[in-house]
Request: fold
Amino acid sequence: MEQIKELLKSRIAQVHDPVQKILLQDVLVDVFGELLGYSEACFAHLEKKLDEEMQTPDDSYTIYTGVCKKDGVDDASRSLFEIQKDEKEEAHVQGYLGTVFLACDYPAVRHCIAESHRARIETDMGDYETTVRLGYCSAYLKKFEWLYQQFWTNQKPWHTINCPFAYKLLDVIDEQRCVPQEAIVARVEVDLGEFSEYVENDMVLVWNLSQEIYRPQIELAAAGNAAYYMHRIPLPDSAVGCLALTEGEEVFSTVVTKDSICIRTQTEKYKNIELAKIERMDMQKDHTALRFPLQTNRRRIRHADRQAYAQPRYLWTRGEAERILRSYEVFSEFELEELCIDRPGELDAIDMNPFVKVHSFLKKKRKLAVVLHAKDQTDIFRYEKMFFLLAELQLCTQEYEWTGIMR
Reply:
């Protein structure tokens, strides 16, 4: 292209009549400008067609998470909803007293989890002083496991969730069993020494997922020698991602069109089907009093990323790892300094996917360390965000073990 441009300049320079030179310049600019615009439009149309044919993560299934006071949840919100913990899960934990939020960084949280602490408990049966231990909130982790299971059963490509707040919410467990199990706990005061000022009570997690029950249109269809039930549910908003919650149905499939979702089952006909809807975010219509900005697992899928989905990853390079990291919005808060082999991390990583089972025949895996620099060193969630990115890299391969170093 540059050679042709230089050739045209030399030809124009040979024209001595100024009027003809101006006309020739205008004609060439207009003609080549139109050709260039036409070529760009054709390539854009081809790229769009290829992208639509390739199966890549749908942006309508992006999860947003936040944390706020329990009385700060907007009951009229159409975007954010409180994550309903499994109360039975909490009841099964012996000595469970409540959940506190620790607003300090990951090393401090690890220090508090590693030790026992004195606590004062106010209940309807009186006040108690006991020794307690802290641990990650099991009810929230179980809820995330449930969500991952729904994505898996609905055959939707989804890896993990970016929710650093979940690893600041800690269950308080009575080690001495001083507080009666039947007592109603009104307040928990845990003495964490220098970290006591960071303790916050009555905090809950929110996300952009709601659940609704629909009455589907049911048809009986045949596939080969078997019959199956087709449940069709009209969708008022095609931009909303939906997951079918069919309890007891191990094998089913979902097909989402522009105006409906079709659920095919083999063993049972459902008069009512519950859908989990991933709502679009509209903060102008939401008045949830968030304690910190929302976090998301949203990806900026470029054409190169879509092409990479169809390619096997046998050889890992810095460029490939950086391409995957840069596709996530949260990576804009970091800088990739180095990618090194067989180097341990400074801290034990959080298992961001305790429910993902990774099987490998390799007895010993080589360790890849990602060295990141957080642009905001005061961000108390920087370690959890790094572990989220590491979890995404880990799920892309089984032959390596990924770890992270923060600088």
In short: The CA atoms of residues 60 and 240 lie 6 Å apart. The first strand starts at residue 64 and ends at 69.
